[in-house]
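Session log. Operator J.P. requested a structure for one protein chain; no other inputs attached. Running the standard single-chain path with token output.
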Amino acid sequence: MKSSFLQCFLFMVFVGVQLIVPACGPSVTEKQLNPVEKMYNQNRWRNRPFDTNWKFYRGDIAGAELSEFDDYNWRNLDLPHDWSIEDLPASADTFPDLDPPRVGPFTPASEGGLSTGFVLGGTGWYRKTFAQEADDLDKIVYIRFDGVYMNADCWINGNHLGNHPYGYTSFYYNITPYLNLPGEMNTIAVQVKNIGENSRWYSGSGIYRHVWLDVVNRIHITQWGVHVQTTRLQDQSADLALSVSIRNTTGKETPVTIQTRVISPREPIDKTYETTATLPAGGIQTVRQSITVNKPRLWSVSDPNIYLADVSILAEGIPVDQYVSSFGIRTLEFSPESGFRLNGEKILLMGGNIHHDNGPLGAATIDRAEYRRVELMKSFGYNAIRTSHNPPSPQFLDACDLNGMLVMDEAFDMWQEPKNPQDYHLYFDEWWQRDLESMILRDRHHPSVILWSIGNEIRERADSSGLAIAGKMIEVIKGIDRSRPVTQAICRFWDHPGRPWEDTYSTFELLDVAGYNYQWQKYDPDHELHPGWIMAGTESVVQEAYDNWDQVKVHEYVIGDFLWTAMDYLGEASIGHAVLNNVTEDFLLDWPWFNAYCGDIDLCGFKKPQSYYRDVVWGISQLEMNVHRPVPEGLEERVSFWGWPEEWPNWNWKGYEGIPLQISIYSSLDSVQLFLNDKDMGAKKISPSDKYIARYSVPYESGILKAFAWAGGKVMDSVILKSTGPPASIRLIPDHDEISADLNDLCFVTVEVLDKAGLRVTDAIIPIQLTIQGEGKLAGVGNGNPKDIKSFQTPAVNTFRGRCLVILKPSKHPGTIQLTANSNGLKSEKIEIKTR
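Structure written below.
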């Protein structure tokens, strides 16, 4: 078996989520315990997964927060859970009969409409019962949510813990005062309200990220309370500054000892650093240590080494808490003279924007799906991600740490001024600081995070109110973490036509890095006026990929470019469309579009046509080729600003024999030459004015289309497209042959339609029927077609461009999962996936 997510995930269980491990030491059960010793003896796992065995009700219902409420008929499920991606109940009478009718999770009656991909939000309830363990009686218990969309009200045993409006930040409550005695049942109830127009993209609904019980002693390290920063890096050593935030709830002043070990993934480090402090009664104190690591293994894009800080707190000589946080040893430098440097090495940010959904899985944060997205980005040449436009899941950042992916971590899409009537602007004034602090405290231990972004295309960005807000946000961030620069993504004044671009300058003056959305033309003139600014393309379109990347290559002060978007996402449907001019065109089209379709990678993780051009622009490839779909006579194609022409690597055009087709060849070399069935179609020089594109018009005939790229009089590269025969068989390609029997693992299986020669039939649209048996079930299906509106959760899927995707979820029991794929007239295929 090749290296799998499971292996990485098991490592991250130890290093990536700031996990508290069991304290080690001699048994003290044989002697009389003092209170400190008793706390130590009872300390086991601090972060306890709390995802399983919840009850769920889709809708609102009175009294569900009460312990005595009868939820017997509610649905049983495990978290993370997104109800918006699920099929609508056949018996649902919330909406009248529609034309077209409801399909899977989609309905034209969706409040969010195209913006959220025609899915439904509404209200949902979650409940879970559990008993406190006897050993936890003298401890403090927190319940922590990684993310709930949105407006989550939480109760325990009928006691209201609070409301958390924002759907993307982590939050927690102290439930200790409301717990029943050990052996008695406790009931957690959560009401989630995703109501009205509150998002510009697919948000999902429900407790869509993980939930934890954090069980601690009365002297303990606070949530996200360990931070390690590299302060100096030399050839043979690294100096680190470690801070530990400790809470004392014992009611008396207590002296403590803080012991820290730095653990390397590759060699033992035996040195322990020790500091003493006196904790005030009922207070929090931050203790700092200076640490030196000899011969450090640095975290970098190509070699992402992870270290652990193992921090123990001792009171009266007895360990009372132990907290293990991952970190990376690395330095960040940003300047207009030398750009961005990681560990002294210049890095150009080859970036992509990503929304938080996982395609057919919706917003549910299944760990393997989060990891796969980062893995795909890395494999397609990206080295940076902007988390547009909200904090991602902790597991996503864990994956970035392990894969050497750089991250711009973004907080908000709006401040006081709305973009939708019911969006976060309603809560901003009361909540922005708490949400921002949650993001910075939670994410600062991730070496992958190199930039904080405080907002995206904020409407009041250049007004006095927006400038004041930005200043306060920057002050809050710098008070927690001064090791990373702060940016904000600024666009032209779409909502105030005629307002001059120069009005943004006061905003840029506040920022460490100036973020430009679709404004590469402004780099040169702005630099002449403000030579001290560091700039980044926070959003750009692939149609302007050459121009944007050229700016990055020639200007030190432009540190990188982030494409909109790296991956397709649900909602903002059709923003990346290409249609004929007989279709009524607008910024967004209409049903049945549900997918933005502006991504470099599609919803299933497959490479899209525009990514071949981006590969050449970024220097990942020297030569690529696409063929445009025939355009009927008298019509022309219209491509949206975020779109790409309707072309792909395909030479199957039966019925168009003799009709000229447009061939696009992308190359960064001197010239290209095209052959069709060994007939020379001519050579063409390529210059910078061509932006790496050469186009041919070639009458179609089946066979072999072959392009060569030349430099210095030599052939340097070639690419071939072949016509295929008709569909003959199905091939199943799992991403792993063996996965964990764990609800956080998945197997992604690519389904391909092949001809008799074993070639993928690149234009095949074939219905596939699936049968799944054994220790697993269907988690989702998809095909990347932005208009194939259907259920993601039924065992039937159409191929798109000759392939589709099946996602399998293991049960909790080891064994095998059998997947069989059938289609009329084709040879079927069956595979087995082991789970252990």
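Operator note: DSSP finds ten helices and 47 strands in the chain.
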